[in-house]
Automatic annotation (TrEMBL):
UniProt-recorded name of the protein: DnaJ heat shock protein family (Hsp40) member B13
Bias (Polar residues) ranges: 263-273
Region (Disordered) location: 259-279
PROSITE patterns found in the cross-reference section: DNAJ_1, DNAJ_2
Length: 279
């Protein structure tokens, strides 16, 4: 790649892990190909991905700090890998978008909008209508009502500066989940037998993974199953997430079959405190 990883991320060599993450986030959003069409932005985005891939890994960073780029990519003898330094030859996977998505936890949405601005002349008449492209970067975890302001991007008149353009987030309903703050609610209908005997729930997460959640407790009407860290990303810290909460609607049968009724009576007798006592 060439260049100094610290210079690429615009940080000094005493930067903490938090400094590295903060710098990468700021610059990756700035140079992401979906929001930046300037010449060289793709190369810059790739450089940022490689720099972050190295400096965010303690072993790679230790080798780079001590032996430089040549030691990192050429490899060092095992006896020199003191303190757990990276000894193998390093090569970036050349997928900066993967680095970016792994960093955020979920994809970031870039939305390009074309607006028309009215520019008024001194007579109060519209002298021109100018189109302008605005890029709205929707960050992970943003909530409904979040406001994105573009200063002076609105209409303009002789006696007034251009107005601000404000976009307000509206959240569309999801077919599987209901959002409550940073938590996701998943509703499932189950039979009475499942509620009493246990079962498991297979669910596809928002980022496309499939997880299996075992339910081993008896499910009563107010029962909830909480799975930590599978909810929405926290707006100010997307690497952390809220909870995924399962709630259940129990379908009671309208009537019991003779066999089911017999099994129920047998079960009740076996649970009786007097069961098995001699008369």
């Amino acid at each position: 790649m060439g260049g100094d990883y610290y210079e690429i991320l615009e940080i000094n060599r005493n930067a903490t892990d938090a400094d590295i993450k903060k710098a990468y986030r700021r610059l990756a959003l700035k140079f992401h190909p979906a929001s930046n069409r300037e010449p060289g932005s793709n190369d810059k985005f790739r450089q940022l991905g490689e720099a972050y891939d190295v400096l965010s890994d303690l072993r790679k960073k230790a080798t780079y700090d001590k032996f430089g780029d040549s030691g990192l990519k050429g490899g060092i003898p095992l006896e020199l890998a003191i303190g757990g330094a990276w000894s193998s030859k390093y090569a970036y996977h050349d997928n900066p978008e993967k680095t970016f998505k792994d960093f955020l936890g979920v994809p970031t949405l870039f939305q390009k909008l074309q607006i028309s601005r009215k520019v008024m002349n001194d007579n109060g008449c519209t002298s021109s209508i100018r189109d302008k492209i605005l890029t709205v970067i929707v960050k992970p975890g943003w909530k409904e009502g979040t406001r994105i302001t573009f200063p002076k991007a609105g209409d303009q008149s002789p006696n007034n500066i251009a107005a601000d353009m404000v976009f307000i987030m509206r959240q569309k309903p999801h077919p599987r989940f209901e959002r409550q703050d940073n938590d996701l609610i998943y509703h499932k209908r189950i039979s009475l037998e499942m509620a009493l005997t246990g079962f498991s729930v297979d669910v596809e997460t928002l980022d496309g993974r499939f997880i299996k959640i075992p339910i081993n407790e008896i499910v009563h009407p107010s029962y909830k199953k909480v799975v930590s860290g599978e909810g929405m990303p926290l707006p100010h810290n997307p690497s952390q997430k809220g909870d995924l909460i399962f709630t259940f609607d129990i379908l009671f049968p309208e009537k019991l079959s003779a066999e089911t009724a017999r099994r129920s009576q047998t079960s009740q007798c076996s649970m009786s405190p007097n069961a098995g006592k001699m008369a």
